[in-house]
Specification:
The protein has 23 helices and 22 strands. By secondary structure, it is an alpha/beta fold. It has three domains: 8-144, no CATH class; 154-269, Rossmann fold; 284-613, Rossmann fold, CATH 3.40.50. A hairpin with a 2-residue loop joins strand 3 (196-197) and strand 4 (200-204).
């Protein structure tokens, strides 16, 4: 046996000392009971009772050690002892006392009732004292240590006096890392007002938050009501924002159900909490039906939307998932995540560009995808204003080549991820995405009319591949092409939320382009789940429009984030208005007037009717725009984009 295996561990030593203490405790408790019964004088104890005690106590001691072990009194970590451990001690002590009464009576003689009563009480107190004194010692040690290092506690207001709040309170007390002290609890249950939970007063309801923040000098507010409705939570956070305190929030009831309650489960209050609506829900059975057992490909699979598409698709049992992206770092990151979460998933990660027909042809011919979600695109509005040729090359022509390949190889469904910036665009990015919508609508129209062979193949290279491509179009091609259009998503790459947070961390200023600018917002998982359900409803040619709720003023968004960080707008953190950026407009639209509107079984998904346009003329102009873009003629590219998209009116900011 090795040396480290022979060495006693710390908890072994603790258990040995506890056993020794328990032996002394059970012997002493009933001797003291006998001593008290006879007026606390040893000389007055009759010999028959003393002899009975001395004969039975070794038997009783052995019984106690066995019962204590059965009740796990030697397996608990007493520094974290709580109500459950207290119940175990009481149950074990009472069980032993019952056995004591039965054993000593039947084996020897009946003792006085006071002997039994005082014996069990003294024994219980001695058992509890030694086990909970260690926890009290550690709590006091933490308090003294914090005071010595001159780093005072931050006073915390806990909102919620229910089960979750009680767990948070205990977790803060036990934590070595946190320098927090809960000084008051807020709850709207009037029966709890004026009472105490573990020594902390329940100071009143939510209408007294401002008053109690001042009274108790509160610096942090922890919201521990996981069952609260989103609208009610929004109203509560609005009140808390005005206090200037740092706010943290327990996300939802699922945390409580899964046993994930604790300080670590608290998160910074985010803008999502201020949307004030229930999370968007979709019919997962419909999504499962459309994806299960199919080969699914996601272009731009490493981006914000693309990676979330991959996560949700992976959860719906595809036969194979193909991640296609030109940026290897993003693709590799989502690949590692999915392999860890779904070890049985048939996952393929490929690097390539949607502008490369030959690479797309190779991927399609080898893997034969059945469903394609096309999320690859340049999306940054100001950058595309400076690089219009790249917007046309990547967005419009990349979509054309990806869609053309999908048609050649019999893909069943092609879903384009579009944007509300494609509606009456004022910038090149939005106009290029409108061109993408026109491309997939033209493809779908000609396929349904049996004229798929009239769809030209675009190429910028002269080789045998380009000359032979047209011969591959199958006569019975039936690919369904659809687009899904939505607005801004919270937390995506380049969105305002991460930018604002970084600016706040640096002490400001927070830059807003215009005080009146508004945008529609949705979380990335919500948007993607609706995209997946929209793909189930698709029959070809539709532009699905996601209902993103009420628009939000960006200025209000910035001010809320500053308040949630514990600062005051225009005092602690300044807000600067920088003016609209190139191509940016004050508000976004979800639908052009000509499109009309149809409903779907999901009230949050609508269908914009296709707008008629001359397909042959469109292809001729698109080919010209492509050649101009590949010649890097920026002025010419802008002109051709305006010819193709007649609703495009560049903003002169």
């Amino acid at each position: 046996m090795r040396k480290n295996e022979r060495k006693l561990k710390h908890w072994h030593i603790i258990n040995i000392l506890l056993v020794i203490y328990d032996i002394i405790a059970v012997n002493l408790s009933y001797f003291l009971a006998l001593w008290i019964r006879f007026d606390c004088k040893y000389s007055t104890i009759p010999g028959r009772f003393l002899n009975t005690y001395l004969k039975f106590i070794p038997i009783y001691t052995a019984i106690c050690l066995i019962v204590f072990a059965l009740f796990k009194l030697y397996n608990s970590i007493w520094r974290f002892a709580g109500f459950r451990e207290l119940l175990n001690i009481i149950a074990a002590s009472l069980s032993c006392s019952v056995l004591h009464v039965i054993g000593i009576t039947f084996l020897f003689r009946r003792m006085h009732i006071i002997y039994y009563v005082f014996g069990v009480v003294i024994q219980l107190l001695l058992l509890i004292a030694i086990r909970f004194s260690y926890r009290l010692y550690l709590m006091e040690k933490k308090r003294l240590t914090v005071e010595r290092v001159n780093d005072p506690y931050k006073n915390v207001m806990l909102i919620g006096a229910g089960s979750a709040g009680n767990i948070i309170l205990r977790d803060i007390r036990n934590s070595k890392e946190l320098n927090d002290k809960v000084v008051c609890i807020i709850d709207d249950n009037r029966n709890k007002w004026g009472r105490y939970i573990d020594g902390v007063p329940v100071a009143g309801g939510t209408d007294s938050i401002m008053e109690n923040v001042e009274k108790f000098d509160v610096k942090k507010i922890y919201i521990a009501i996981p069952s609260m409705k989103p609208a009610d939570k929004k109203a509560l956070i609005e009140i808390c924002k005005e206090t200037g305190c740092e706010i943290k929030n327990l996300p939802g009831i699922y945390q409580f159900v899964n046993g994930e309650i604790g300080v670590s489960a608290l998160k910074e209050v985010s803008v999502e909490d201020l949307l004030g609506r229930d999370p968007i829900r979709v019919n997962t059975d419909e999504i499962l039906e459309s994806l299960k057992g199919k080969v699914v490909m996601v272009t731009g699979g490493g981006g914000s939307i693309g990676s979330e598409l991959c996560r949700q698709i992976a959860n719906h049992e595809p036969k194979q998932l193909i991640i296609f992206d030109i940026y290897e770092n993003n693709a590799y990151e989502i690949e590692l995540e999915l392999k860890d979460r779904y070890p049985d998933l048939n996952l393929v990660t490929l690097i390539g560009s949607v502008r490369d027909s030959r690479r797309l042809d190779q991927v399609y011919s080898q893997y034969r995808p059945e469903v394609i979600f096309h999320a690859a695109a340049h999306k940054h509005v100001p950058l595309m204003e400076d690089s219009p040729c790249e917007a046309v090359k990547n967005n419009a022509i990349g979509t054309y080549k990806t869609a053309y390949g999908a048609m050649l190889y019999g893909v069943k469904k092609f879903v384009l991820i579009s944007t509300d910036k494609a509606v009456n665009p004022t910038n090149v990015m939005g106009a290029s995405k409108r061109m993408c919508e026109m491309i997939i609508q033209s493809f779908d129209r000609l396929i349904k009319e049996g004229r798929a062979d009239e769809i030209p193949e675009f190429h910028t290279h002269n080789d045998d591949y380009a000359k032979e491509a047209i011969k591959k179009i199958p006569k019975d091609t039936c690919t369904e092409f659809v687009a899904v259009r939505f607005g801004n998503v919270l937390g995506s790459n380049g969105s305002v939320i991460p930018i604002f947070k970084k600016q706040i961390e640096k002490g400001g200023p927070v830059t807003v382009t215009h005080p009146d600018i508004i945008r529609y917002f949705m979380t990335i998982p919500e948007a993607v789940s609706l995209v997946l359900q929209a793909s189930y409803y698709a029959h070809g040619g539709e532009i699905f429009i996601l209902d993103m709720g009420e628009p939000v003023k960006i200025d209000t968004l910035a001010r809320n984030l500053i308040k949630l960080s514990g600062h005051k707008p225009d005092e602690d953190i300044m807000i600067e208005y920088t003016g609209l950026r190139p191509g940016e407009k004050l508000y976004e639209e979800k639908l052009m007037e000509e499109e009309g509107m149809q409903t779907t079984p999901n009230k949050l998904i609508h269908i914009g009717l296709p707008i008629e346009f001359d397909v042959e003329k469109f292809y001729e102009e698109l080919r010209t725009a492509m050649m101009v873009a590949y010649n890097d003629d920026e002025a010419g590219t802008r002109e051709w984009v305006m010819k193709i998209v007649d609703t495009y009116h560049p903003a002169n900011n």
